[in-house]
Amino acid sequence: MKKDLIQIQDLSTAEIDHLIDVANDIIARPQAYQERCLHKKLATLFYEPSTRTRLSFESAMWDLGGTVIGFSEASSSSAAKGESVADTARTVECFADIIAMRHPKEGAPFVASQAVNIPVINAGDGGHHHPTQTLTDLLTISRERGRLDNLVIGCCGDLKFGRTVHSLISAMSRYQNVRFVLISPPELRIPEPIRVEVLEKQGIPYQEVTSIEEAIADLDILYMTRVQRERFFNEADYIRLKDYYILTPDKLKVAKPDLSILHPLPRVNEISTEVDKDPRAAYFRQVKNGKFIRMALIMKLLEV
Q: Which of 27, 28, 85, 134 has its CA 20 to 30 A from that of 186?
């Protein structure tokens, strides 16, 4: 029976830990994986702009010895003519062994997965889920901190629309002794379903604050996010909130010396470029980790 990855909950913690182990082995022994997906094709169906995720998937498949087909915007596909997601997926199934799909509408990758008999990976669907970014985050935390338990994690910025934050909280809530500090303006607080169904139902300790300064000293991980213009219906609200948090070297003076700063990117101006020089800035290492964890995932779903 074929397996898809639509949300991070589709993977058990044992499966996540195994993917991290495989990714670490790929980093240590890349030559051992150069032909694992020989003669396999990945289709990247990106209905929404992407740099890191699309290039990461493509690099992952090439490094496994496979090939890549697909499109990088809806206007260059038959979606521009009104073709449904299901029909596009069925068509692509004729040419590819596995699909990675990004779509602005929540649930689109799930619809595709129900229409085809090849694995489908959700590469981001609206404000809903982004499970491979979460796997990237978990690999990064594991490599930076040496563990996925006993951590205080601060999530800062757009917690309402930020699908990466939603998936990260869902994943990290399954590890022992993890506490969250949720840093956002009142308008961009974590959605009620995440607060109630994930944090409160599982008894995960968390606090909500509006100031990054009052939280940063306690954090092991600081997960920064941008305020996403594309998720706002009102331009005035976006302009008012987009510069609410800007991480600077001055704000990091009271942070732990071994703090790890993550960001799913793209960055706009929520992290000063001066922070890039700080060894605690892990976000570009995080980008590189994305390729390795996607290589591990592709192999798992293709059963190679």
A: 134
